[in-house]
Amino acid sequence: MTWQRRLNEALRRYAGVRFERVSAARPDGPSDGPSDGAAETSPETPRPPADPAHDRLLTAPVFILSPVRSGSTLLRAMLDAHPLLRAPHELHVRRLSVGYGTSLARRAMEELGHNQADLEHLLWDRVLHRELARSGKRYIVDKTPANAFAYQRIATCWPDARFVFLLRHPASIASSWYEAGAGKRTPEEAAADALRYMKAVRRARKGLAGLTVRYEDLTADPERETRAICAFLDVPWAPEMLSYGTPGVISKGLGDWQDKIRSGTVQPGRNLPAPEDVPEPLRPMCRDWGYL
Q1: What is the pLDDT of residue 110?
Q2: pTM to 2 decimals?
């Protein structure tokens, strides 16, 4: 036992206190709340799996990248109704982390060729694979909106991942985000918060290949849009997607919890705002996404 440990043990025994090593704050980029962070990093460099056949259990996972309040819970419920697609509630797996605990644990993992990011990727893959295996389906779909802040990390973890970008009129997103806040933020604050998610999705669309779907099109013609999604995912279209039933885990913080999503069928979207009614901070994004 080192003198440091002996001193710590004495302090614990006679004074009821002890010192513990505090890990340095992780530069994880944005939290699951709004952020302007362009990318998410790890304490050690994220990298693709060295041996994909053994390092990954999942095949071609699907990620819906979208801002908050953009209809992602509706889309995930429709996809989960497909017999080959498992789309659970928001999983936030990118926030699952691992630690070595001791320097010997670090050395042992380094001898196996793993850094901390590798170990986190193994954990993420295992959690998603377990959910998929329990469902008996073929592909997992994760729609956590905050994943847009970590799109590079996700694409690194799963090089065969497929991405669906879900867009909605920025002013409608901001209005819905304000209404969902139940007085916690002003309309201006809601617009600013939602805009951070929109910017993250814009970065992801520039950095990744994928399919873009608009909420307005999905609610106006759900069969056409779901057929396009199924074609992109290389699965047959399933009519069950149009009457998805009550989605599981309707809970604030894990997806849309309000009455509209409980209906079990696609409901019409809200009317789009007139161009002159779009708040000025949202106008550039509206133009970028083709709404102005």
Answers
A1: 95
A2: 0.81
